[in-house]
Amino acid sequence: MELETRLNESRPASPGTLRPGGRTAKVRRAVLDATLDALAKSGFHALNMDRIAASAGVGKTTVYRRWTSPTGLVGDLLHDMAEQSLPAADTGTLAGDLRANAELVRATLTDPRMGAVFRAVIAAAACDEECARALAGFYRTRLAEWTPAVAKGAARGEVPAGTDPVELLRAVSAPLYYRFAVTHEELTADVAERAATAALAAARDGVFVRE
């Protein structure tokens, strides 16, 4: 672990992705909070580095040096959001864990502030490769956080051995994101419940077993 840490520290970091302490940490927090507010209010294409610096109370030179571009800001924000998100549930059953996962996704997307942020980032990812990579990284981190729940469920015999946890978890959230980003339909608790129930039923039938 120490070797891995030293290797990671020796590699060039992506814009804004250092894990600083002290004043530098406060600067990063202020800039990321300002970025989130700006995305929620105006979307990605209105993201302006000078205005972010002013809103955060940080010098423009610092913002340009550390994040280099609006996509650098978005990438670091997504990295931070992934790390700060709630941990995976452990209800004692896979059904309960999947329902908790679906409800967490639903609650996030229906939150007025966070829903606007995700809508902005998803739109940006559709036309900007760097944003797309950052968003994919966010979801990789969140899926990895929840994969042990599927492994525990398989160990309890709730789904077949060899069930791919990532594919199962994607099947839970995909219907919610479809309604959110494509059809703009209401995301109710019933919708989240059905998504979790349908994904679990498919998993029990072996749909997600790795070949």
Automatic annotation (TrEMBL):
Keywords: DNA-binding, Transcription, Transcription regulation. Coiled coil: none annotated. This is TetR/AcrR family transcriptional regulator. Residues 25-85 form the HTH tetR-type domain. It comes from the Bacteria. Residues 48-67 bind DNA. Residues 1-25 are annotated as: Disordered. SUPFAM superfamilies: Homeodomain-like, Tetracyclin repressor-like, C-terminal domain.
